[in-house]
Design brief:
The chain is α/β, with parallel strands linked by helices. It contains 22 helices and 18 strands. Helix 19 links the parallel strand 7 and strand 8. Helix 6 runs parallel beside helix 10 and helix 6 packs antiparallel against helix 13. The two termini are 16 Å apart.
Length: 574
């Protein structure tokens, strides 16, 4: 892994913002935040100012009017979600709002293995037979050209709310399309989650004159903000960049999450012992809450997660929590097995390969995306992991920043019955399994062209080189202003060069971790912990000089708090 230390800000730039600590200014610049307006929005997110007007979306007005028309006429509405955490949360955001307005609304979430992603023809036919008048998609729909055309012929209007990339052919038969990635859109923030887009439509509904003119038993401002726990969970779990409008949504959403009124979410949090001593943060959502909600759609049916988030049944809620936790355990076990099998196919050495493929018979469809992500992280290559069931090959891809995986899929689009995604992740189904080799050949050729001459060594972005004496509680308090942390706003990373090894030991059940004390020429020692760096105990001796990339963290035990440096990477000093 190569280290890339961000270019230091100039004295001229420091002088432009004399009231801001240079450490903070460096971190802001590293995140592309350079104007006073951007700085204010980042450091002091303001819900009243930093959330954009939903009516900037070109089709928003007609979509909202159609919804009010359906409510007035008591038409049947189906909210069609997706089977991941984003899809489940976005569906509930929409359903709970329409239900509160008196709509005749139900949810439909497809089964990942049996129905696949998005709308499918059989579902559309069934909804037509059941007298549905309006379908609102959440976190899907933008690629369902044929299905939406069929819905229109059956007399069903379709409103698409989605956040995936614009396909070569838009579903023009849709009544309205709300997707920030459309080339025609003027909406200023493109990186909303699926739940974020659904939330924009809900905002528009709650702010519409037709709503305010009616005697509704709802406080629209309060109702809107109580939905933010779901939108924050979706935004974090779907790995959306935590900048701009997303940062404001997540900042306020975490406040709501810590006071959530959702019985199922409360019980899930209690079962994980997450908020006993401190407030929930983005990390808790990313690594504990989100994966459990995702597990339902990966292993069983996403309705399991939806019902947990929706329930107000005191007698049933514990059963739902237990079932979801058990499903997640199954997901972890399956994921480990399939990852091992896929890695065995690919091998330990990939040579000059620019793109990687693995195919297993009967691997769960819901697991292959996770596995692709793990392999892409290990080898820093675009990776496709596929499963074959009953003669049909379905797969997921995960990519690296240098390679837009959807561009690659478009090169082979005639081979797919379904495909979709965004630059970093995709899903697809081959029309014919005989086309597998052709698919791999097209992607290899495209990757060779796109990645030719690039150094495909994974890069560790470092915010600044620092002296250990600057690592103190004051710095930590400044760093906390950057929370919530996530994609595009990672916890700041620092580089210490030429640090002297004072003491070290392996810790953990199997000695997998490294605890080490380091100094920097002035006798000042700092404690470092390196998870999964235990093997360094065989390489080090007291007095060695090492370079360390680390994060500043806090170690808490028995009511005590101390600063602790978390090692991200290290090497012997040159």
């Amino acid at each position: 892994m190569k280290w890339k230390v961000a270019e230091q800000i100039s004295e001229k730039f420091k002088n432009k913002f004399p009231e801001i600590d240079p450490v903070i200014l460096q971190l802001l610049t590293n995140r592309g935040i350079k104007t006073q307006e951007q700085i204010d929005e980042f450091l002091y997110p303001d819900y009243s100012q930093d959330i954009h007007d939903p009516y900037i979306f070109l089709d928003m007005k007609k979509a909202v009017e159609r919804v009010f028309g359906a409510i007035e006429k008591k038409e049947k509405i189906i909210v069609h979600g997706d089977y991941d955490a984003d899809g489940v949360c976005s569906a509930l955001v929409m359903v709970s709002t329409l239900s509160a307005l008196g709509a005749d609304v139900q949810v439909y979430i497809p089964h990942r293995e049996l129905e696949g992603y998005g709308l499918n023809m059989q579902t559309v036919e069934e909804l037509g037979k059941n007298g549905v008048n309006l379908i609102i998609t959440t976190d899907c729909g933008i690629s369902n050209h044929a299905e939406i055309k069929r819905a229109a012929k059956l007399g069903i209007d379709v409103i698409i709310t989605d956040h995936h990339a614009e396909p070569p052919e838009l579903p023009e038969a849709a009544f309205a399309i709300i997707d920030p990635h459309l080339a025609r859109e003027k909406y200023p923030f493109h990186q909303l989650s699926g739940a974020g887009v659904a939330f924009k439509m809900v905002q528009a509904i709650l702010r519409n004159p037709q709503f305010t003119a009616n005697d509704r038993q709802i406080d629209p401002e309060a109702f809107e903000k109580w939905l933010l726990d779901l939108v924050a969970i979706a935004t974090i779990t779907d790995i959306m960049p935590l900048l701009g409008e997303n940062r404001t949504i997540v900042k306020y959403g975490l406040l709501v999450l810590n006071k959530t009124q959702r019985l199922g979410l409360k019980k899930l949090i209690e079962s994980l012992s997450l908020n006993k001593n401190k407030d929930l943060d983005a990390r808790n959502v990313a690594f504990q809450i989100g994966p459990r909600l995702n597990a339902a759609g990966r292993i069983d049916h996403a309705n399991q997660a939806y019902e947990l988030l929706k329930t107000d049944d005191v007698d049933e809620v514990q059963n739902l929590v237990d079932a979801l936790n058990k499903t997640n355990e199954g997901r972890q076990s399956l994921s480990e097995r399939v990852t091992a099998e896929a890695k065995a196919q690919i091998g330990e050495e990939i040579g000059e390969e620019k793109v990687l493929f693995a195919l297993g018979e009967g691997w769960p469809v819901g697991i292959v995306g996770l596995v692709a992500g793990k392999i892409a992280d290990k080898f820093f290559r675009p990776t496709f992991v596929m499963t074959e069931k009953e003669g049909v090959i379905m797969g997921s891809g995960r990519s690296i920043p240098e390679f837009d995986i959807m561009e690659g899929l478009r090169e082979a689009k005639e081979l797919f019955s379904h495909y979709g995604g965004h630059a970093g992740a995709c899903g697809f189904t081959l029309k014919n399994k005989k086309d597998l080799k052709k698919f791999e050949k097209i992607l290899k050729k495209f990757a060779e062209k796109k990645l030719d001459g690039m150094d495909l060594t994974q890069t560790l972005e470092v915010d600044a080189e620092v002296d250990l004496k600057k690592i103190n509680w004051e710095l930590f308090e400044l760093l906390e202003k950057f929370a919530p942390f996530g994609r595009a706003n990672e916890r700041p990373k620092y580089l210490g060069r030429g640090l002297s090894v004072e003491t070290f030991e392996s810790v953990g059940t199997n000695g997998n971790h490294l605890r080490i004390n380091l100094s920097q020429g002035n006798g000042l020692r700092k404690k470092f912990i390196g998870f999964c760096f235990g093997d360094w105990c065989q390489k080090l001796k007291v007095g060695d000089k090492i370079d360390v990339v680390f994060e500043v963290d806090v170690n808490e035990w028995n009511g005590n708090r101390e600063l602790q440096m978390k090692i991200i990477d290290l090497k012997m000093s040159e």
